[in-house]
């Protein structure tokens, strides 16, 4: 498949009028994993929880996929307007939110899209996440890739990972950068395991945010050094599916 070298990012992408508070392609990749793992005929019977639901763009996508039992937890739920048939609760994901559900109320799918990088303790988050998942359920977690080609160049230039540091904190509230290794260890300690790993950027080598010329130069440097990089160099956002560790 032919790929672009650089894809421009935008923070104004919408789904049915709702702003997608994420990088380009993230919700689409999440939707792809969900639709692949849950047959259409079974979706009406699967409980879905969206953690950090934002404006509800991903919730709307899940409803369009045929899921009918959908719950949204959001720190500021006032932005979740226009939904009549879903449960909406104000929840702080730095707290012990796993205690909010019982065995009979666990979820078949838990979505944590662009959430964990905002939280104080990813290990605590993983433990709470496990409490929410039904025995055969799975979670989809996304987070900015600090291993991407563009992020590696940003770290060399500034000493901070892309979308982190002072700018990332002021603009996005990002405080916890995670590699796939760190994310997998947080999940493993909670007795969860990554069963599928993907990313949001299949049509280009890197994504470049709108910004000054220096950002564009960094993007070009990332392209030039891309062939020499090892590991998780592809993608702008990690997208993983995780489930309970099987005996």
Layout of secondary structure:
Blueprint: E1 4-8, E2 14-15, E3 18-19, H1 26-37, E4 47-51, H2 57-64, E5 69-74, E6 87-90, E7 107-113, H3 122-132, E8 133-144, H4 149-158, H5 165-172, H6 180-189, E9 192-199, E10 204-208, H7 213-225, E11 237-244
Parallel strand pairs: 1-10, 4-5, 4-7, 5-6, 7-8
Antiparallel strand pairs: 2-3, 8-11, 9-11
Helix pairs in contact: 3-6, 4-7
Give the biggest beta sheet: 7 strands, mixed
CATH architecture: 3-Layer(aba) Sandwich
According to CATH, the homologous superfamily is Vaccinia Virus protein VP39
**Tally of domains:** 1
The end-to-end distance, rounded to whole angstroms, is: 39 Å
CATH class (first level) name: Alpha Beta
With strands numbered from the N-terminus, the spatial order across the biggest sheet is 6-5-4-7-8-11-9
Helix content: 25-40%
Radius of gyration: 18 Å
Strand content: 25-35%
The tally of beta strands, per DSSP, is 11
Mean pLDDT across all amino acids: 88
Could you characterize the architecture of this molecule?
With 247 residues, the chain is of the alpha/beta class. The protein has a single domain (12-144, 175-202, 232-244), classed as Rossmann fold, CATH 3.40.50.150. It is 29% helix and 26% strand. It is built from seven helices and eleven strands. The strands form three sheets. The chain has a seven-stranded mixed beta sheet, with helices on both faces. Helix 2 (57-64) links the parallel strand 4 (47-51) and strand 5. The radius of gyration is 18 Å and the shape is globular.
């Amino acid at each position: 498949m032919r790929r672009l070298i650089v894809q421009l990012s935008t923070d104004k992408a919408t789904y049915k009028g709702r702003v997608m508070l994420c990088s380009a392609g993230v919700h689409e990749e999440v939707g792809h994993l969900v639709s692949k793992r849950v047959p259409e005929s079974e979706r009406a019977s699967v409980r879905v929880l969206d953690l950090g639901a934002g404006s509800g763009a991903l919730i709307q996508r899940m409803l369009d996929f045929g899921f009918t039992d959908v719950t949204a937890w959001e720190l500021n739920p006032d932005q979740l307007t226009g939904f009549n048939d879903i449960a909406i609760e104000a929840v702080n994901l730095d707290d012990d939110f796993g205690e909010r559900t019982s065995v009979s109320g666990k979820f078949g799918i838990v979505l944590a899209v662009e959430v964990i990088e905002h939280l104080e303790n990813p290990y605590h988050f993983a433990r709470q996440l496990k409490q929410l998942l039904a025995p055969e359920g799975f979670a989809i977690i996304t987070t900015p890739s600090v291993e991407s080609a563009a992020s590696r160049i940003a770290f060399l230039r500034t000493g901070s990972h892309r979308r982190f540091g002072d700018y990332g904190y002021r603009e996005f509230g990002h405080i916890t950068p995670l590699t796939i290794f760190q994310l997998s260890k947080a999940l493993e300690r909670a007795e969860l395991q990554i069963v599928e790993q993907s990313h949001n950027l299949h049509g280009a080598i890197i994504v470049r945010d709108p910004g000054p010329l220096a950002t564009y130069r960094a993007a070009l440097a990332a392209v030039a050094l891309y062939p020499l990089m090892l590991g998780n160099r592809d993608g702008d956002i990690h997208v993983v599916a995780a489930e309970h560790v099987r005996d």
